[in-house]
Amino acid sequence: MNDATPWVDPELTAAGQLLQRNGYVVPDRTQAPLSEVRAAQDRVGAFLGQGSVPLKHERDLSLPGPHGQVPCRLYLPDDGERPPLLVWAHGGGFMQGSLSSWDAMLRELVRQSGAAALSVDYKLSPEHRFPKAFEEMVAVTRLAAREGAGLGIDPARLAVGGDSAGANLALAAAMALRDEGLRAVRFMLLIYGVYSTDSESPSWQRFGQGAGLSQTQMRWIWETYLERAEQQQDWRAAPILGNLEGLPPAHLIVGSLDPLQDDSHRLAAALNEAGVRHTLKVYEGINHGFIRYGRLIGTSRRALAECAAALRAAMPAG
C-alpha cells in the first residue's frame, strides 16, 4: 500500500456523500453551540438507525448513581434465560451522544451475541466534568453485579464495552472494579477507544488534520471534560497510564484511517505486557466512528458481527 495515499473504503466515501446530500452534517464542536452539535449528532444517529427493529424486550430504566439517577436502556435477547450482560458506554467525546443513537447497533449486537446490553446515559461535559461519567459507569456496572438478577440477566457474567470516549469509560471502570475485587466482569469490548490524552502520535498527525475527529477537536474535548490539566495524568481519564494486570480478556477494534489507531496499538502492547488476553482487529479503509454505519457500510456489519462473536465466545449465552 502506498504510504502517502491510504486506501479508503468506497462505501465509506459513498456514506459520507449521502449524509452530506441529505444535510446530516455535524457542526464543528469547537465552534458551534453545544446544543446544535448534540442535536445534529442525534439526527445523524436517527438516520443511521432507520429501519432498526426493536427487540421484544427492551426498556428504559433509572438506576441510582453517585450523582443522582442514571437513565439506562436495557436490551434483552429475544431467546434465552438469564443471559450475560454487556454494560455499554456510548461515544461522543464525553460531551454528546444519546441512548437512541446507539439503538440499532446495540440491538444487532444483542441479536448476534445472545448477550443482553445495558446502555448507560452517563452525564455529559461540560455540565458534568470528570470524573462523574467514570463514576456513573462504575456504579451501574457494580449495581448490575449485585442486583442484576432482578433485570433478568446473569449478574455473575458481565462485560463492559464502549466506543471512542465510551471505550475509555469501560476500560477505566473495569480497572476500578478489579481493584474493588469484583470478579463478575469477564470481558471488555473496546471499540476505537481514546485511552490516553496524547493527540500528537503519528496516527493523530496523519489522520487528525481534516474533517472528522481532528487534533484540534481532541484537545478541546480534553479541555472540556477535565477540570484541571494535571488530570491528564489520572488513570481514570487516561486508563493506559494505570495498572492493567488482572483485567478480563479484551477485544479491540479500530479503523486504519482513525487518528486514534495508535491508542489501540499502544493499549494492545500494554495489555500484552500485563499478561491480559486480547485481540486487536484493524479494519482497512475505515475511519473513526464506523461501528454504527452498518446500514451503509459492509465493513461495519462485518466488524459488528466479529464483536458479537468475540462477546459470545467469552460469555456463551448458555
Explained architecture:
The chain is α/β, with parallel strands linked by helices. The chain is built from nine helices and eight strands. It has an eight-stranded mixed sheet, with helices on both faces. A hairpin with a 2-residue loop joins strand 1 and strand 2. Helix 3 crosses helix 9 (298-314) and helix 4 (132-147) packs across helix 5. The longest helix has 17 residues, at 298-314. The model has no long low-confidence stretch (mean pLDDT 96).
Shape field: globular
Averaged pLDDT, please? Answer: 96
Q: Give helix % range.
A: 25-40%
H/E element sequence: HHEEEHEHEHEHHEHEH
User: How many β strands by DSSP?
Assistant: 8
Low-confidence stretches: none
- In DSSP terms (H or I, runs of 4 or more residues), the helix count works out at 9
The helix/strand class is alpha/beta
- Biggest β-sheet: count, sense, barrel? 8 strands, mixed
Largest sheet, order of strands side by side? 1-2-4-3-5-6-7-8
Rg, nearest Å: 18 Å
Oligomer: single chain
In percent terms, what proportion of residues is strand?
15-25%
Q: What separation lies between the terminal Cα atoms?
A: 43 Å
